[in-house]
Write a structure and sequence with these properties.
It is a single chain. Helices cover about 20% and strands about 35% of the residues. It is of the alpha+beta class. The protein is globular. It contains four helices and nine strands. The strands form two sheets. The protein has a six-stranded antiparallel β-sheet with strand order 1-2-3-9-8-5. Strands 4-6-7 form a three-stranded antiparallel β-sheet.
Length: about 130
């Protein structure tokens, strides 16, 4: 199971990469493997400010649909349009080309509430 140490994580299996006041968000390797083959990623919050823990979109796999939860409050400034034609990128490269959105961070102190790689690994091992 791939859990990059430079990223932060949520209990809902999103990952977040902070770069200044911008954050890139996707779902973890664990989440994509649990979901199975992803066939559609739906994000209708572009240009909206989404509160921490609110739903920013959904991911549809062959057998299920799962909500995507915002790790921190911010404005959704970009959607990974490559996912419209190739949603399977989330399965193939969840931490790279399978990223989902970029947001402008409103409250950097919320980053401190996220899990580090070790805490996330402990969570999924149960």
């Amino acid at each position: 199971m791939n859990i990059p140490s430079e990223l932060k994580y949520t209990k809902d299996h999103e990952w977040i990469k902070v770069d200044g006041d911008t954050a890139t968000i996707g779902i973890t390797d664990f989440a994509q493997s649990e979901l199975g083959d992803i066939v559609y990623v739906d994000v209708d919050t572009l240009d909206d400010t989404v509160e921490k823990d609110d739903v920013f979109g959904s991911v549809e796999a062959v057998k299920t649909v799962s909500d995507l939860f915002m790790p921190l409050t911010g404005e959704v400034i970009e959607f990974n349009e490559a996912l419209e034609d190739e949603p399977e990128l989330v399965n193939k490269d969840p931490y790279g080309n399978g990223w989902m959105i970029k947001v402008t961070i409103e409250d950097a102190s919320q980053i401190d509430d996220l899990l580090d790689a070790q805490a996330y690994q402990d969570l999924i091992k149960g």
